[in-house]
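quick q for whoever's on today - can somebody do inverse folding on this one?? i tried earlier but teh output was garbage lol. tokens:
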């Protein structure tokens, strides 16, 4: 009898152990499933990123946006080309995620909490009408042209032709960088101020005797690029420091990148990735 009770007790305990084991397995399965689902959901970004600012950064932003959205199909990137200062102002107001500036940030902007994130280096090319016979200027000669002190190409050995000085509008990052590098802020005598890189190229192409300045990557064969102090505007010369007119391309944020939303942080991760760096190089810019 006692033997039979012992066997019955052992059998009961074994059954309980089996039930407990099965229950434990049942509890583990949903946890693993939930974790996997959570990981899967976290790997797919969705939402929007808004940028605004420099017109000089259009080629970079269009190429980067297209490449980023292929890698992240759930994200929509929008870019407006409003000028560097306008882009930073929109960022300060909180209406966009990233402010594009083709110049270094001003102290007042930094004091307002804007952070300078340099994503590329660009050269500023000095361009002239293709009929111009002057293909090289010294820094001093270029300054004299933009300050209105020299007004005829014959003074530089060219044709007897008036110099038509073309520039960008106030607030343009290209203009700000150009004037700062030449130390001619508020001293330029422009015949015409235009509001985009493309407009400057078109005006110089169609106007005999004209001279202007644009982002290096925007120069095409419709105009002539003037060398400075005998140095051609090229990536190699900018990297070596022998060509003087260069400036940063900035994608500014309100606060550090680490303080931004996950989707904005993913944008900067992509810009810094091998794919993003390839985009920078492909559009003719220099890696910082």
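ok took a stab at it. sequence:
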């Amino acid at each position: 009898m006692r033997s039979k009770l012992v066997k019955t007790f052992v059998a009961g305990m074994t059954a309980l152990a089996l039930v407990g084991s099965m229950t434990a397995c049942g509890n583990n399965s949903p946890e693993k499933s939930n974790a996997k689902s959570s990981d899967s959901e976290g790997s797919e970004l969705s939402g929007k990123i808004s940028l605004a600012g420099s017109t000089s950064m259009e080629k970079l932003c269009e190429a980067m946006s297209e490449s980023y959205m292929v890698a992240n199909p759930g994200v929509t990137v929008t870019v407006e080309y409003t000028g560097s200062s306008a882009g930073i102002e929109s960022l300060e107001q909180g209406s966009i995620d990233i402010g594009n500036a083709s110049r270094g940030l001003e102290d007042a902007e930094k004091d307002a909490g804007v952070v300078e994130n340099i994503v590329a280096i660009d050269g500023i090319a000095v361009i002239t009408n293709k009929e111009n016979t002057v293909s090289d200027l010294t820094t001093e000669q270029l300054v004299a042209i933009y300050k209105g002190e020299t007004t005829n190409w014959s003074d530089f050995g060219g044709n007897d032709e008036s110099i038509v000085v073309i520039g960008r509008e106030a607030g343009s990052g290209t203009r700000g960088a150009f004037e700062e590098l030449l130390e001619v802020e508020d001293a330029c005598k422009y015949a015409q101020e235009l509001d985009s890189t493309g407009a400057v190229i078109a005006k110089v192409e169609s106007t005999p005797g004209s001279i202007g300045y644009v982002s290096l990557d925007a120069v095409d064969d419709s105009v002539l690029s003037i060398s400075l102090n005998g140095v051609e505007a090229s990536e190699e010369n900018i990297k070596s420091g022998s060509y003087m007119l260069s400036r940063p391309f900035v994608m500014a944020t309100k606060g550090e990148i680490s303080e931004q939303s996950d989707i904005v942080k993913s944008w900067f991760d992509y810009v810094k990735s091998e794919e993003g760096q390839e985009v920078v190089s492909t559009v003719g810019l220099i890696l910082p």
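fwiw The first strand starts at residue 47 and ends at 53. also The CA atoms of residues 178 and 245 lie 7 Å apart. so keep that in mind when u check it
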